[in-house]
Amino acid sequence: MIVSRSVPFYDDHLLPRKRRWTARHWRWVLAGGDTLVFLFTLFYVLFLASTSGWNEFRIVYDQPLAGWRSFFCWEVLGGLAWLVSLRLARPYARFHALSYCRGVLTICCSLGAMLACWLLFLYTFFQGDLFACLSILLPFAVVLFPIFGLWRACYVSLLKFFLFQPLTVVVGADSLSDAMLTELCQIGQPAPIMLGYIDEYSDIDPALLSWPVLGGNVLLHSLVQADLVDLLVVAPDCYVDPTLYPVLMQAMAQGVQLFSLPDLYECTSGKYPLLNGTSLHMLMEQAHRRALSVGYHCWRRLLDLCFGVVGLAVLLGLLPLLAVCIYLDSPGPVFYWQERVGYHGRCFRLLKFRSMRVNAEPCGATWASQGDARVTRVGRVLRATHLDELPQVINILQGEMSLIGPRPERPMFELQLEQILPAFCCRLGVKPGLTGWAQVKAPYASSYAAAAVKLQYDLYYIRHQSFVLDISILLKTIVAVLWCSGR
User: Fold this and answer.
1) Phi/psi zone of residue 146: left (φ > 0), alpha (ψ -120 to 50 degrees), beta?
2) Where are the beta strands (DSSP E) in 45-104?
3) How confident is the model at residue 320 (pLDDT cuts 50, 70, 90)?
4) Domain map (residue ranges) of the chain
5) How would CATH label the architecture of 165-269?
6) What's the pTM?
7) Tell me: the pLDDT tens digits for 20-58?
8) Using CB atoms within 10 A of its CB, is residue 3 exposed (0-12), middle (13-18) or buried (19+)?
9) Are 224 and 251 in contact (CB under 8 A)?
10) How many whole angstroms separate alpha carbon 271 and alpha carbon 185?
11) Is residue 431 classed as helix, strand or coil in its secondary structure?
């Protein structure tokens, strides 16, 4: 829980502690730990290889394993491969480093990319046999992956230990900032120790805030000078105050972490804050840069094609059984075509297995709800296992949808939601998906408020599209299907 200080802050005996380690120190710990784990594992595997007399080393180097020369060659090529993997997976990003699952998943993706590049380098520079290189790298991977995963989990546990929770001050006191911080406290992760707000021109009633207003820029300067702040969170409106910049620059020079409140909200909650037009402009600019990434575009296209082909084979195999079950339970068509709004606002016909009775909407389109009476008995099973969505592999193969992306809405709901939530149209900047970040993080939306929450998740995905995030979504989707958590 975040600690609230309702008493004068400047009494020394009330302070929990002084600042210990800066963000720079933690980055050095993480990078140093990764390096030590990598070197130790490589040395261990090469030592075993040299003592067991593997003939594969003769094939790779055209000579027996010869001390430091061979070790140095392996280290150099492994280092180059690691640099390539860092560029692809970004394992040191704060969003990944502060989570058990994301941290371990990110480092595993980085190691997988590293091993692939390493294998390519070995085969290219030494003209060795591919199977010989694999016979050396695979034992290394078997040892490396669990040790790296354990080390990353220990690192996250150390960060969340109460002695290392950062002393936090928020610059800018207003109701929006307070609501965002309160939501972050309810996420369930260990939160920083909140000391209070700094606001030079505060006119809000302190009783409406969850934490006290400590003072103005002079007090902030004193706190930074005394090393009593680990983390500074700046509300969006405070960046227009020119008197604040010297204090922020001094804080950064002394190793204090500096975050804007929207960035901290994104990093912790996995949602994009709906603030103003400027932030949405930055969102679309970021999404455009992602779309221009050739490597990511190839990954997504390959993923769609592979899933489409495999999914089509599964669909053809299950179609006779599911068709009989659907018809016997509720006579009528097996498939259900529904118009949806897709990429750049183009409408297309989305294909599903029919899970509701015929003519389920006599009065027009309505929100689906929990325990909807229109759903048939077989339809409940199809929805729980998400098999009703399987025919959409045809939409994916036709290029109308992607495997991962925001769920497409019906045209009437799209118009209504765009009127209530102007940012809703930003979802049309990417292809709609069969699954997505919003689908695995939030339940079905049956109201405008729930749609607003899912919109935040969709906008976060649009802004942070990456290989690691896609893998995370796929793993969460597999878990949801296995646990039959559909509605």
Assistant:
1) alpha
2) none
3) very high
4) 23-159, 165-269, 291-358+370-482
5) 3-Layer(aba) Sandwich (3.40)
6) 0.82
7) 666 677 778 888 888 888 878 877 777 776 666 555 444
8) middle
9) yes
10) 14
11) coil
